[in-house]
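Give me the fold.
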Amino acid sequence: MRRVNLVFCAILPLLASGPAVAQTGDCSDRPLCLGQTISEADLAVWSLNVFPDGTGLPDGMGNAEEGRQIYRDKCSACHGEEGVGVKVLLDRGAFPTLVGSTPPLTDTEQQPAQTVGSYWPYITTFFDYVRRAMPFATAHSLSNDEVYAVTAHILVLNDILPAAANLDRDSLMQVTMPNVDGFICDARPDVFAPRCMSNCSVPGDAGISIGSGETYGKPVPLTDCMVR
């Protein structure tokens, strides 16, 4: 207990001095006069959300051939030249493969690898991820044109687009991912259903209900789920 008290006492002067220093400016809109008001320009840099209906897709265009070189320069060190990963990294459980297990699965595949071709239901989600988080060490460093180009190249590696494909906002929205029908809505009552505090139904394939609560039927396709 004595050690905790000493640490707490050491922190108190720092907490006390912070607001006093900041009081020199006008900060009536900020509790304790901490931080600073963010501008719309500052916020726009991080406002990157891209949704399945295409909302948020930026202007720009990229070619798969251009994306191939960008991928080699900025992505292949982790994901391998052809998107199959780097063995020494995969053995450590990092940097997964981007190519393979594209549906339909073969008879010997019980569980597909979660690659771009087998897992992502919407290409907009993949585009959003690359734009926001890649490359690993320099996230958010790719231009919009580069993101479109790299996305096109990775789709080519997965046999989803032809080798000379171009991508922009409109053509990207025409891409149908191979496993889009392999997802279902989350049928748990706290996801889409209204709040229920008594006589609640039990989610399940058979639409079981308890008491007079609303019945939850079978899960519906993801495409229907997204527009609810």
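Residues 2-22 form the longest helix (21 residues).
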